[in-house]
Amino acid sequence: MRDYSTNGFSNVVEFTPFTLWSRSYVLMTTNRRLHYQVIKTCKKMGIKTVAIHSDVDASAVHVKMADEAACVGPAPSNKSYLNMDAIMEAIRKTGAQAVHPGYGFLSENKEFARRLSELLSNCPLLLGYPVMIKASAGGGGKGMRIAWNDEETREGFRFSSQEAASSFGDDRLLVEKFIDNPRHIEIQVLADKHGNALWLNERECSIQRRNQKVVEEAPSTFLDQETRRAMGEQAVALAKAVKYCSAGTVEFLVDSEKNFYFLEMNTRLQVEHPVTECITGLDLVQQMIRVAKGYPLCQKQADIPINGWAVECRVYAEDPYKSFGLPSIGRLSQYQEPLHVPSVRVDSGIQEGSEISIYYDPMISKLVTHGTNRAEALQRMEEALDNYVIRGVTHNIGLLREIIIHPRFVEGDITTKFLPEVYPDGFKGHKLTDFEGKELMATAASIFVTDSVRSRKFLEKMTGVPAAKQEQKNWELSVEIHDSVHSVTVSKSGSSNIVEVDGKTLNVTSEWNLASALLPVTIDGTQRTIQVCSTTVHLSDIFFKKKNITRQLRFRWVTQNLTLKLQKKILYVCQPGAVVALSPESEGAPLRDIESHSVR
């Protein structure tokens, strides 16, 4: 939509590479005879049309042919077809992205062209709220805000430009229409310097928080082959149109009717590219190097398969209980990747002893699993998360595990609003079922008994004095969980423990290697993975503390009193970070701007 004063069709042709990406509309101003041709051509290109009409033209043929219609006034042309105010209002209401002026009337009217240019220059008014404000050089959700009104637009512009400058050294911004409750699906493209370009299927990236992806998978459960091909062909058309050569990603928002809207193109390798490599068998880094060297692509579009299913979880040093993940800092005191799980890939740049600081992205690793189908890939991901040992920093593995086992996710019923819809009050951790609680107490009691027996034997060897006249076989314990105390009895027999919890008897068996971070346990024939953290038992990311009650209460009381005494002089923030701006200390105004991992 560049030159509204011309009477040709060139202003519409510019949408050709994008016709299937967005809900494009062409608004036609005058001349019934031309309307037929415009509507026919637009339908062929996948563009919807809006016909304006006067009161007496409400039943005209061109009005019936168009997808939408807008009345612009009574019969006299100076009150309808020449009524610029009414036509401009029709453009705003329908969201038309281009105007075909026909010929005659306003087709060569300079004032009409000027007013259209003014409308184009005011994005929120043209697009309608909500709008997305984002860093033009951005990625990873940084420098991105959603604005629902003028005030939020001004605030979003300030914070987005500051984050963009901090993260990318470029404070330029883009403003685009925000589509509520969509899926985020992207197409991987690969193009060489010889005019060849391929689309390597899609990635579903809808599980997000703060507009940053958390869980990705390939392919998508939502796309049929026809939509997949249409999106892929449009992505390739864009790459060719800009003469792009390398690996790149074209991102789309997809609505519930499988209409897809162009979001942006990333001219780089994406964090989530491993899932594409898993299902296609291609090494994208190798392909980028070959293209940069000038070699043509070896593959044809027909050679690109969908081999099984792949899922990626982004493991972050974050506290998932705060806004689904606010940054955590510290040193990795213990770190063990679950590489023994079949078909697991871990892309990380850290090791035991590494520091997580406030200055860079808090991502620990990309955890990827591949299976013959989605169910197998998810089962392997669940096992991998249970076997991932991270100590020293708060991490989001508990949230990731809850996401992939949630019924909505398993069924593929996901959008970018998945997290706030599933957890409207924030993530609170896994809620134990009654049976899971009994399993956990039985396991904790077994670990306590095993540790006690070994400690007694060690003491006997050190002192040479028997700790008891005969070996103890039975224990009666009180175990506290969820602020309630339960009676637990343990009868030990070799490596097995017969544990009775509230009348339920469980057989708990293990090799009981308490020095290992991971403890395989079998409970009534069912395999479980336990993580033992000092005096804390960890079952499938469920924590149970065995601390002495008196000490626990005393510590809690001291902490509460300390907070009460100092609360007037100390300002607490929900995450570590650097103070980057001091605001006027007037009532209702922000006091400080805190930045951590380039997020304010």
What is the topology?
Layout lengths: L9 H4 L11 E4 L3 H14 L2 E6 L7 H5 L2 E4 L12 H11 L3 E3 L9 H12 L1 H5 L3 E5 L8 E4 L2 H19 L4 E5 L5 E9 L5 E13 L2 E7 L6 H17 L4 E9 L5 E7 L6 H8 L3 H10 L15 E8 L1 E2 L6 E2 L2 E2 L2 E3 L7 E5 L6 E2 L6 E9 L2 H13 L2 E3 L5 H9 L1 H5 L6 H5 L11 H30 L10 E8 L2 E10 L2 E6 L2 E6 L8 E6 L2 E8 L2 E4 L2 E4 L3 H18 L11 E5 L9 E4 L5
Parallel strand pairs: 1-2, 1-4, 2-3
Antiparallel strand pairs: 5-6, 5-7, 8-9, 8-11, 9-10, 10-13, 11-12, 13-20, 14-15, 16-19, 17-21, 18-20, 22-23, 23-24, 24-25, 25-26, 26-27, 27-28, 28-29, 30-31
Please, could you describe this protein's structure?
By secondary structure, the chain is of the alpha+beta class. The chain has five domains: 10-121, Rossmann fold; 131-177, no CATH class; 183-422, ATP-grasp fold, B domain (D-amino Acid Aminotransferase, Chain A, domain 1); 434-545, Glycoprotein, Type 4 Pilin; 549-595, no CATH class. Helices cover 31% and strands 29% of the residues. Strand 5 and strand 6 (144-147) form a beta hairpin. The longest helix has 30 residues, at 434-463.
Key descriptive features of the protein:
single chain; alpha+beta; Rossmann fold; D-amino Acid Aminotransferase, Chain A, domain 1; 5 domains; 8-stranded antiparallel β-sheet; 16 helices; 31 strands; Biotin_COase_C; propionyl-CoA carboxylase activity
What would a concise description of this structure say?
The chain has 600 residues and is α+β, with helices and mostly antiparallel strands. It is built from 16 helices and 31 strands. An eight-stranded antiparallel beta sheet has the order 12-11-8-9-10-13-20-18, sandwiched between helices. Strands 22-23-24-25-26-27-28-29 form an eight-stranded antiparallel beta sheet, with helices on one face. A four-stranded parallel beta sheet has the order 3-2-1-4, sandwiched between helices.
